[in-house]
Amino acid sequence: MREPLPRLHAVTDERVARRPDLAALAEALAAEAGSDLAFHARGHELSGLEHFDLATRLSGFPPSRLFVNDRLDVALACGASGVQLGAASLDPEDARRLETGWWIGKSVHTRAEAEAAHTAGADYLLVGPVFPTATHPTRDPLEPATLSAIVALGLPVIAIGGIAPGRAAPLRAAGVYGVAAIRVFWDTVDGPDAARLLRQELDQ
C-alpha cells in the first residue's frame, strides 16, 4: 500500500538544480515538512546525467519523498515514489506499466486537460497557475470556477503558480489537496518557515 500523497511539492528547475547549496536547502525543508514533502527533480534543459544526479541528491532526505518530472528512466533508476507527467510525456496508464507503486501525476491547465488526465488514469493533478507567477508571466491564472470544476473530478489537486504563505488556506477551502512551488521553497532564506506555514494552512 502506498504512503499518502504529500501535500507540499518543492519543484526544482535548472537554476535550482545547479545551486551549490541545494543539499543544505533540501535538508532544511525536509526537516520541517518530513513525509508531507515531495521533492520534484525537474529541469527541462538538464542532461540525462544531470537529471539523474539531481534526483539522487534529492532522494537522500527521508522521510521526504522523491518525485521525478518527465524522465521515467531516472525515476526508475532512483527508486522514486512518484512521477509528474507533462503534455509530451507518456499517458499515466503507460507509465503505470513501468512501476505500479508510483504516484502518477499529470500537469493540466484546463478542465478539458484535467478530464483527459482523469480518464487516462492519473492519480493526482498538478493544476495551475492558480495565481500570477513569474515562472509563466504571460499565462493568466485559472478562474475559480475552472479550479472548482477540476476539483470536482475527484482526484487530489496540487495547486501551483504564485504559491506563498497566506494563499494556501483559500485553496484548501476550495477543495485543493496540496500546493507546489519553486521560488517560495528555494529562493528565500525562510523556505522552511514557508513550508511550516503552508502545512498549517492546509491543515485548517
What is the H/E order?
EHHEHEHEHEHEHEHEHH
Number of strands: 8
SSE-based structural type: alpha/beta
Q: Share of helix among residues?
A: 25-40%
Describe the structure.
The structure is a single chain. This protein has 204 residues and is of the alpha/beta class. The chain has a single domain (8-203), classed as TIM Barrel, CATH 3.20.20. Helices cover 40% and strands 18% of the residues. The chain has helices at residues 14-17, 22-33, 48-58, 72-78, 92-98, 111-119, 144-151, 168-173, 183-186, 191-203; strands at residues 8-11, 37-41, 65-69, 82-85, 103-108, 124-127, 157-160, 178-181. Helix 2 runs parallel beside helix 10 (191-203). The two termini are 27 Å apart.
List the topology elements.
Layout: E1 8-11, H1 14-17, H2 22-33, E2 37-41, H3 48-58, E3 65-69, H4 72-78, E4 82-85, H5 92-98, E5 103-108, H6 111-119, E6 124-127, H7 144-151, E7 157-160, H8 168-173, E8 178-181, H9 183-186, H10 191-203
Parallel strand pairs: 1-2, 1-8, 2-3, 3-4, 4-5, 5-6, 6-7, 7-8
Give the gist of this structure.
This protein has one domain: TIM Barrel (Alpha-Beta Barrel). It is built from ten helices and eight strands. The protein has helices at 14-17, 22-33, 48-58, 72-78, 92-98, 111-119, 144-151, 168-173, 183-186, 191-203; strands spanning 8-11, 37-41, 65-69, 82-85, 103-108, 124-127, 157-160, 178-181.
